[in-house]
Amino acid sequence: RRELALHYQPTVDLGKGNIVGLEALMRWRDPDLGPVPPARFIPVMEETGLILEAGRWALEQAVADFRRWQANGLHPPRVAVNVSQLQLRQKDFVATVERALSGAAGAAGVLELEITESLIMQDVEANILKLKAVRDMGAEVAIDDFGTGYSSLSYIAKLPINTLKIDRAFVMNLTRNPGDVSIVTTMISLAHSLDLTVVAEGVETLEQANLLRLLKCDEFQGYLFSPAVPAERIEQFLRENKSLPG
Ligand code: G
Ligand code: G
Ligand code: MN
Question: Does the N terminus or the C terminus of the chain have fewer Cβ atoms within 10 A?
Fold first, then answer.
């Protein structure tokens, strides 16, 4: 019934302060209930299999939004779409991504797939093949919620990924908890030694951003810059070249 929408949360370069990515986050407004939080409806979609159709829609809508911004003369950064377990397990997962990119011409720099650490490590050999195939089409891959699952260190170097996203749990108390500083420092150094871009999630204060910059983290996401906002708002951000002050 066209009740789903994609909102986007920017990812920001910690050095330059500009927007370098946009994460698509599904929103559902029920006519009676009003906005339903994703934490409530996404698990139900996963249980019922509806996530296959909704996930396909999200991939296609994100690419369509990207192309529309481009057609409007803007230079949108890559759009990231979250992929759930059921989607990744499908035999036609790679074909679904290919279809969303509609034939691959000019597909580089358009799409990034976010896959949680715990999901990527399940059936890791099969996932490596699938993710290699989507990367060959020009899509990038990020490990989401890093640090909350358990990664096999022997696999992490073999995964065809571009980006590691440090889970919000490690960022939350970063400026108060020396233990979290040690963990985040180690994650950043692991990522850089594997030639990956590191993104810190859930940055809410300037102190957190400054510390992360000092620790050589590349990018961040969080309320300090912006929550997820509707596509029209993103278009404004891009027109104004919205960036982090200072
Ligand atoms: O920003 P927010 O409260 O919307 O996100 C809640 C959770 O819902 C996040 O863990 C996010 O990964 C998940 N989520 C949001 N949109 C999608 C989507 O399009 N597909 C999948 N699989 N998960 C999503
Ligand atoms: O699991 P995933 O990383 O895909 O989902 C992102 C989740 O984090 C969403 O629920 C989003 O609303 C939330 N989020 C994004 N930025 C912040 C932030 O700065 N603070 C808090 N508390 N939550 C955030
Ligand atoms: Mn995500």
Answer: N
For ligand 3, the distance from its centroid to the CA atom of residue 114, given in whole angstroms, is 6
Q: How is 114-141 classified by DSSP, letter by letter?
A: EEEHHHHHTTHHHHHHHHHHHHHTT-EE
**Is ligand 1 within 6 A of the CB of residue 147?**
no
Longest distance between any two alpha carbons in the chain, whole Å: 50
Which ligand 2 atom sits nearest the alpha carbon of residue 23?
Answer: 4
Question: 230 CB contacts (<8 Å, ≥6 apart)?
Answer: 5, 7, 8
Quick one: pLDDT band at residue 153, thresholds 50, 70, 90?
A: confident
- Give this prediction's pTM: 0.96
What is the band of 68 on the pLDDT scale with cuts at 50, 70, 90?
A: very high
Q: Which two tokens stand for residue 65?
A: 């939004």
Q: Ligand 1: which residue has its CA nearest to atom 15?
A: 25
Q: Which of 23, 28, 82 to mutate to test the pocket of ligand 1 (most atoms within 8 A of CB)?
A: 82
Q: Which tokens belong to 9?
A: 């949360």
CA-closest residue to ligand 1 atom 8: 38
Amino acid letter, residue 194: L
24-67 pLDDT per residue, tens: 999 999 999 999 999 999 999 999 999 999 999 999 999 999 99
Q: Which of 7, 8, 9 has the most ligand 2 atoms within 8 A of CB, as the residue to mutate?
A: 9
Torsion 32-54-79-21 (CA) sign: positive
- Measured distance CA(133)–CA(34) in Å, rounded: 39
Phi/psi for 201 (5° steps) reads -95, 150
